Amino acid sequence: MRKLNPFHLAIPVQNLALCREFYGQTLGCAEGRSAEKWVDFNFFGHQLVIHTTAKNHGADNAQSNPVDGHDVPVPHFGVVLDWGEWMDLSERLKKEKIHFVIEPYIRFKGEAGEQATMFFLDPDGNALEFKAFKDIDQLFAKG
Prior knowledge:
This protein has helices at about 15-25, 85-95; strands spanning about 10-15, 30-35, 40-45, 45-50, 65, 70-75, 75-80, 100-105, 115-120, 125-130. The chain is an alpha+beta fold. It has two domains: about 1-55, 2,3-Dihydroxybiphenyl 1,2-Dioxygenase, domain 1; about 65-143, Roll (2,3-Dihydroxybiphenyl 1,2-Dioxygenase, domain 1), CATH 3.10.180. A hairpin with a 5-residue loop joins strand 9 and strand 10. It is globular and about 50 Å long.
């Protein structure tokens, strides 16, 4: 797999201070530039910007699709971590008592694309998924 370029994602939040703490402290993302109404973070090597908006775009507008017996929130975003990083993060989030929409587990066990995954919401209801593959070549594997 070729070296990936970092993505840039900007998401709406209503409570900038609470979300700033969540991404900075809870997830451990280093803060970059900021202004009165936005903050950017190093989101596991990618640029994530939280922008204050008047309207909540998170949980109130969320839908879901069934995947491997779970209701996966749509929309969602996240990152594919190394296996060890994913394990460490899932344990840290459990200790932080994060409410998981989908608890950490192994999806598609024994099938093409087998992966560790977990879903949770930020304080404004934006859904996040973190996943990992023991074999990164399975990232785009067809079943």
